Amino acid sequence: MVYKFIKDGSIEYPIETLCKTLSVSRSAYYAYARGSTYQVKSEKVKLADKIRDEFATHKKRYGTRRISKSLKQHGISIGRYAIRSQMRVQGPHAIQPRSLYPKLPIAGIS
Known about the structure:
110 residues
Protein backbone atom coordinates (compact mmCIF):
# COMPACT_ATOMS: atom_id res chain seq x y z
CA MET A 1 0.00 0.00 0.00
CA VAL A 2 2.84 2.37 0.87
CA TYR A 3 4.68 1.42 -2.28
CA LYS A 4 1.65 2.13 -4.41
CA PHE A 5 1.36 5.55 -2.76
CA ILE A 6 5.02 6.25 -3.58
CA LYS A 7 4.49 5.13 -7.16
CA ASP A 8 1.47 7.41 -7.56
CA GLY A 9 3.18 10.34 -5.84
CA SER A 10 6.39 10.04 -7.84
CA ILE A 11 4.77 12.09 -10.61
CA GLU A 12 4.79 15.20 -8.41
CA TYR A 13 7.60 14.52 -5.91
CA PRO A 14 11.00 12.80 -6.07
CA ILE A 15 11.02 9.15 -5.01
CA GLU A 16 13.86 9.81 -2.56
CA THR A 17 11.77 12.40 -0.70
CA LEU A 18 8.70 10.18 -0.60
CA CYS A 19 10.70 7.22 0.71
CA LYS A 20 12.31 9.32 3.46
CA THR A 21 8.95 10.79 4.47
CA LEU A 22 7.29 7.37 4.68
CA SER A 23 10.33 5.68 6.31
CA VAL A 24 10.80 3.23 3.46
CA SER A 25 14.21 2.39 2.05
CA ARG A 26 14.66 3.24 -1.60
CA SER A 27 16.09 -0.20 -2.31
CA ALA A 28 12.89 -1.82 -0.96
CA TYR A 29 10.77 0.46 -3.14
CA TYR A 30 12.81 -0.29 -6.26
CA ALA A 31 12.68 -4.02 -5.50
CA TYR A 32 8.89 -3.69 -5.32
CA ALA A 33 8.86 -1.73 -8.59
CA ARG A 34 10.83 -4.54 -10.28
CA GLY A 35 8.33 -7.04 -8.94
CA SER A 36 10.88 -9.06 -7.01
CA THR A 37 9.26 -8.67 -3.58
CA TYR A 38 5.99 -9.79 -2.05
CA GLN A 39 5.71 -12.67 -4.48
CA VAL A 40 5.26 -15.97 -2.71
CA LYS A 41 7.10 -18.79 -4.46
CA SER A 42 5.05 -21.73 -5.63
CA GLU A 43 7.24 -24.06 -3.51
CA LYS A 44 6.21 -22.22 -0.35
CA VAL A 45 2.57 -22.39 -1.31
CA LYS A 46 2.81 -26.15 -1.92
CA LEU A 47 4.64 -26.62 1.36
CA ALA A 48 2.02 -24.58 3.23
CA ASP A 49 -0.70 -26.75 1.71
CA LYS A 50 1.10 -29.93 2.79
CA ILE A 51 1.50 -28.60 6.34
CA ARG A 52 -2.18 -27.68 6.46
CA ASP A 53 -3.19 -31.09 5.07
CA GLU A 54 -0.98 -32.95 7.55
CA PHE A 55 -2.41 -30.89 10.40
CA ALA A 56 -5.98 -31.60 9.31
CA THR A 57 -5.29 -35.30 8.69
CA HIS A 58 -4.34 -35.78 12.33
CA LYS A 59 -7.41 -33.96 13.67
CA LYS A 60 -5.51 -30.81 14.74
CA ARG A 61 -3.49 -32.74 17.32
CA TYR A 62 -0.06 -32.60 15.69
CA GLY A 63 2.34 -29.83 16.63
CA THR A 64 5.47 -28.78 14.78
CA ARG A 65 7.61 -31.71 15.93
CA ARG A 66 5.15 -34.37 14.85
CA ILE A 67 4.35 -32.62 11.57
CA SER A 68 8.08 -32.38 10.83
CA LYS A 69 8.57 -36.11 11.43
CA SER A 70 5.49 -36.98 9.41
CA LEU A 71 6.62 -34.88 6.44
CA LYS A 72 10.10 -36.45 6.60
CA GLN A 73 8.45 -39.87 6.32
CA HIS A 74 6.81 -38.60 3.13
CA GLY A 75 10.20 -37.46 1.80
CA ILE A 76 9.83 -33.74 2.52
CA SER A 77 12.69 -32.30 4.56
CA ILE A 78 11.69 -29.21 6.49
CA GLY A 79 12.68 -27.97 9.92
CA ARG A 80 10.46 -27.44 12.92
CA TYR A 81 10.91 -23.70 12.97
CA ALA A 82 9.95 -23.31 9.33
CA ILE A 83 6.78 -25.26 10.09
CA ARG A 84 6.18 -23.08 13.15
CA SER A 85 6.51 -19.92 11.08
CA GLN A 86 4.13 -21.27 8.46
CA MET A 87 1.60 -22.32 11.10
CA ARG A 88 1.73 -18.86 12.65
CA VAL A 89 0.88 -17.35 9.29
CA GLN A 90 -1.95 -19.83 8.70
CA GLY A 91 -3.25 -19.63 12.27
CA PRO A 92 -3.82 -23.27 13.34
CA HIS A 93 -2.91 -24.37 16.85
CA ALA A 94 -2.66 -27.95 18.04
CA ILE A 95 -5.32 -28.88 20.55
CA GLN A 96 -4.43 -30.66 23.75
CA PRO A 97 -6.27 -33.98 24.07
CA ARG A 98 -8.20 -34.61 27.27
CA SER A 99 -6.55 -36.48 30.09
CA LEU A 100 -7.29 -40.18 30.36
CA TYR A 101 -7.50 -39.92 34.12
CA PRO A 102 -9.88 -37.57 35.92
CA LYS A 103 -8.26 -35.01 38.18
CA LEU A 104 -9.39 -35.70 41.69
CA PRO A 105 -9.19 -33.13 44.45
CA ILE A 106 -6.37 -33.67 46.91
CA ALA A 107 -7.46 -33.83 50.56
CA GLY A 108 -6.47 -30.81 52.62
CA ILE A 109 -5.82 -28.53 49.64
CA SER A 110 -8.54 -26.15 48.55
